[in-house]
Amino acid sequence: MRILETKMVTGHIRVLTGLHIGAGKDAIEIGGVDNPVVKNPHTDEPYIPGSSLKGKLRCLMEWTTGRVKANGDTWDGSDEKDPERLASDPVLRIFGTTNRGWKAGPTRLIVRDCALNAMWRDDVVERGLLFTEEKFENNINRIQGKAGIGIRKTERVPAGAIFDMTMVYRIFDAGDGGKVDEDFFRELLKVMRLLEYDALGGSGSRGYGRIRFEALCVDGKDLQKDFEAIPPDEITQMARTA
Could you count the other beta carbons within 10 Å of the beta carbon of residue 34? Predict the structure, then answer.
């Protein structure tokens, strides 16, 4: 097995509604933020962890290809006896697997952490604005029709923020001349389009985390037009082997 090609996918992630990717908190401060966003410890700027973006893309593809079980577990190919069928699985091939029966090489997709776009960041600093906002949330008493106790303060990256995205997609010759990996690159684009219909980060059902991919390029060549041209009815029609 050898690597045949490396596709460098670059672009922007534009936040359309407040984005919350949590960082956790060691201590609770009076009047402080209950749910802070993850930030670079050296610059205190929010960023999108590559693990969060990759994990969401994988999750969407797992749901779309029908491999999420009733108990919440996902199919990992452990019960598949045919190595060729296992090697042709899009989720395992693109996103990786710990399955000991896997013989088709390493993870095809590498997702880097997404830092704030420099131009957007400098504009925010110049205007004296903040990189994040604080949103208050509460529970509603269904009988009384009014807010209950326990106000939560959640930190979010505001709508309009732009992050720089870099992903690497590797094509290997696993006895097929790289054809399967080449075909699965479109499956990756389709699940990225699906993410635009879904949400990134937490509280997506409450309006958080709507994003849009912009200025996409592959190896410096325009990819945005082909990305946007994927028909809506094809977005959820992904390769299935499970």
Answer: 16
Tokens read off for 114: 């997404």
Tally of CB atoms within 10 A around 178:
17
Number of H helices, E strands in the chain: 7, 9
pTM tops 0.70, yes or no: yes
Q: 8: part of which helix (H) or strand (E)?
A: strand 2-15
Q: What is the pLDDT along the chain (242 residues), one digit of tens a residue?
A: 889 999 999 999 999 999 999 876 544 444 445 689 999 999 999 999 999 999 999 999 999 988 888 888 887 777 777 777 788 889 999 998 887 778 888 899 999 999 999 999 999 999 999 999 998 876 666 666 565 665 778 899 999 999 999 999 999 988 888 899 999 999 999 999 999 999 999 989 989 999 999 999 999 999 999 999 999 888 888 766 54
Question: Domain boundaries in the chain?
Answer: 2-24+34-235
